[in-house]
Amino acid sequence: MVDTPSTPALEALATSGIAHDVTRHGPVSSLEEAAAVRGLEPDRLIKTMVVRRGEDDYLFVLVPGSRSISWPKLRTLLGVNRLSMPDAATAKEVTGYERGTITPFGATRAWPVVADERITGRVSIGGGAHGVGVTLDGGVLIAHLQATVADVTDA
User: Fold this and answer.
1) Which residues lie across from 126 on neighbouring strands?
2) How high is the pLDDT of residue 4?
3) Which parts of 7-137 fold into alpha helices (H)?
4) In terms of pTM, does the model score above 0.85?
5) Virtual CA dihedral for 56, 59, 60, 61, nearest 10 degrees?
């Protein structure tokens, strides 16, 4: 166990009433290593990607571990022709988190959330700091974030 200070994500979760477990671990070098430390399969780890839809218009996309965003699927879902990933400084500015720690919980703005339809069962999402994971039920996660659920990833 690593002693990591609280984060806005952990504070938001603590007040949410959502049942969850917090795992604090040291640095990991791969998705597989992070999954092992959290006692889950790699696809049970959920990556939070921040995507730019337009001027001051972003969203969070929740993606299972080994999958990646399907840009054509996401553009079709959102009805837009262009999406992009912000640079690291912009991502931090619009979420409050640096890359590798981004999570919808406790973000500086409650951007809309799109969750891949494969997010089910027990999953782990970032806790707002390196080496901090939050494990909870995927359905509860999606419901709490009022996420739009769709097939938005590729293997």
Assistant:
1) 133
2) 57
3) 8-16, 31-38, 71-78, 88-95
4) yes
5) -140
